[in-house]
Amino acid sequence: MSQHRRYPPVPPLKSALACTCPRCGEGRLFDGFLKVAERCDRCGLELARHDSGDGPAVFLIFIISVIAVLAALWLESAYAPPVWVHGLVAAGLITGLTLLMIRPAKAYVMALQYRHRRSDFEES
Questions:
Q1: Per-residue pLDDT tens for 58-71?
Q2: Computed from CA positions of residues 1, 13, 59, 84, in that sequence, does the dihedral angle turn out positive or negative?
Q3: What is the rounded distance in angstroms from the CA atom of residue 46 to the CA atom of residue 15?
Q4: Separation CA 120–CA 50 (nearest Å)
Q5: Helix (H, G, I), strand (E, B), or coil: what is residue 27?
Q6: pTM of the model
Q7: What is the pLDDT of residues 104-121, one digit of tens each?
């Protein structure tokens, strides 16, 4: 593919929710659940070198922990269940939200990296 081809801007949130390439918005971003593809299968953008690392996981820890604590407080005040119910609800909530949000969060950070440091991607 030509490196000089112009691609219309892809909104980072749209790219993240679809887990697609931040440059063309069409190619797959991931080769597995969280493994970033080497290159975009549509436009050829090198993706693996610009993996977002643990940043999205750290953001999710803060966000999901607040949600879990608020849910536990609400559950306690509304129903006053035994401690084991809190454990089951918290484990299910934290696991479910993490699995649901980790891919889009990682894709969003990569899309923002592409938007604000495009020259780093294009040099590859």
A1: 999 999 999 999 99
A2: negative
A3: 16
A4: 9
A5: coil
A6: 0.87
A7: 999 999 999 999 988 777
